[in-house]
Amino acid sequence: MTAEEIKDVLIEIIEDIDEDADMASLKPDVALRDQLDLDSMDFLDIVMELRKRYKIQIPEADYPHLATLDSCVAYLTPMLAGV
Amino acid sequence: MSDFPLIIIGGGLSGLAAGIRYARFGNDVLILEKHSKPGGLNSYYTRRGMLLETGLHAVTNYAPPEERHAPLNRLLRQLKISRRSFITHEQFGSRVLFPDNVSLSFSNDFQELVDEVARLFPATTDRFLALVADMDAANPFLPEPRVSARKRLREALDNELLTELLLCPLMYYGSSEENDMDYSQFIIMFRSLFQEGMFRPSGTIKDLLDLLLAHYGSFGGRIRFKSGVSRILFSADHHPRATGVELESGEIITCDALLTTIGFRETMGLVPDQLLPGKNETAPAGRLSFTESIYLLPQASRDKLACDKTITFYNTAPRFNYACPGEAVDLTSGVICFPENFHGLESKEYIQLRVTHLANYGIWQEAAKGGPAGTYAALKEEWGKRSKEAVGKIIGNYRENIVYEDSFTPVTVKKYTGKVNGAIYGSPLKHKDGRTPFANMFIAGTDQGYLGIIGAMLSGVTMVNQHLLT
Description:
The complex is a heterodimer of chains A (83) and B (470). Chain A has 4 helices and no strands. Helices cover 55% and strands 0% of the residues of chain A. By secondary structure, chain A is mainly α. Chain A starts with a helix and ends with a helix. Chain B is built from 13 helices and 18 strands. In chain B, a hairpin with a 2-residue loop joins strand 3 and strand 4 (50-53). In chain B, helix 2 crosses helix 13 (452-469) and helix 6 crosses helix 7. At the A-B interface, helix 3 of A face helix 2 and helix 13 of B.
C-alpha cells in the first residue's frame, strides 16, 4: 500500500469508530488524541481493526508510534508494503 | 484445534456485550445461554399476549451524545452501536422517602439534588459539596482496599439522616453487601444514579436485547439457547487450563479461553472439586434477594395515585435496614417504580407499577420445597396483600384497580438466573480484575463488580479488552 492509501484506510477506520469525528479538519502532524477526543479504549480499536484487516500485530510498546496520522503512516508503511 | 477460540457462559447483558466486542474484530465466539431467551437478570416474558420485563426499572448512567467520555457513550462506541440512533427517554424525576415526610428529590439534573440537600439540611450543604468534590477527584476503578461507604459518609457529612438518604437508593440499585457498600462502589453508583441519571431506551428490554443479538450476529458471533453448562473441562497438568465445557445434554464443546458471566461462586460450582479444594470459601454467597411485583392499572387510576415520580425509594423504619430480613419480605422499605414515567413515551391502555422489597431466600425456598402443596402460593398471596397495603399508604390505594398482577420471589430469581440465594447483585466479594485461579478463564458481569445494565455491559467489554483481545 502507498502512504496515501494507508492514510485513507486510517481515516476510514477512525470515522468508523467515531461517528462524530471531524476528519476534514484533521491535522496530520498533530496528535490524534488531542484532535479527536479519543480515549484509550477507542485507541485500542484502531489497533484491533488494523489487525483484523491486515493480520498485523502491533505490540503495545509501539503504540507511541501511532500518535499522529503522519507517524501512523510512517510506522505502518513497511508493515503493509506487500498488501 | 478447539471448536472456538472463546466460549462465553451466559447470554445476559455482560455476556452479549463481551461477545459483540470479541466478534467485532473477526474472532469466532460462542455464547451459551441456559434459557430460551437472552438477558439473564434483565429479560422478559409474555403473559396474556403482553410483554412484561424482569429486572429493568430504569437504566442508570444517562448521558447526552455530546458527552463522549461518559460510560454510556464509551460503551456504545466500543460495541459499534451508533449513539445518535440510540433513542433514550429520560426520567421525570425520582425521590427518596423517609419517615416524617422527609423527601429528597433528584433527577437527571444534578443541581436538583444539590438544591434538595440545601433545602433539607442547610447546615450540611458545604460538607455535602465537599464530599461531591472529593468523589469527583477520585478514581473509583483503581483496585484499592475496601473503605466503608457508611463510615466515610458519616465522617464527611456528620449527618445521619442524609447519609441514609443517599445510601438507600444506591444500595437498592446494586449493593451486594448488607447495610454497607465499598466507598469506591458508592462513588461509581453515585455518579451513575445521581450525577448522570436514569433513562430508558426506546421500546422494551426485548428491543434492546434483539438489537444486541442482531449486532452480535452481524459480526459472526454465535449463541445457543437452552444450553446450560454442567461442568467446565480442564487440562490435566500442573497448571490446569479450561479446555471446554460439557453441556447438560452431554455434548462437549472445546475452547481456548473461557469467559463466564454467571457469577464467581456459580462458576466455581462447575469446576471439579479436586481441582480447587475449599473453593467456596473464596466466594461467599450473597444474601440479598428481592421480591418484585408488577401491576397493570387503568390509565384513569393515575388521577388518584401519587404517581408523578419515576422511582420512589422508600423507608419507613427508624433506621434503614438493607439486609436479608428475618421474615419472608421486609415491607419497611422498597422501590416503587412507574416505568411509564420517562419523557417521550407513548401512553398505553394501562399503566405499569412495579414494587420491589428485600426478601429472605431461605424462607421462600423452604415454602417452595418443604411445605405442603400450596404453601408457596399462599405465602406469595399473603405478602402480596401486605405489600399492597404498605405501598398503598405511600402512593394511594390501588388494590381495587389492578387489572393484572404478577410477582416473583427469590426462588423465581434462582430458577431463572441460577444466582445462588437468588442474590441478584451476587457475592459481596468482587473480583475486579476478572481473573480466576485458571490462567485462561475469566469472569465478567455481576461478580466482577460493575453494576446495572450499562455497568454489566462495560464489564463484558472491559474484560474482553483486558484479557482476550490483546
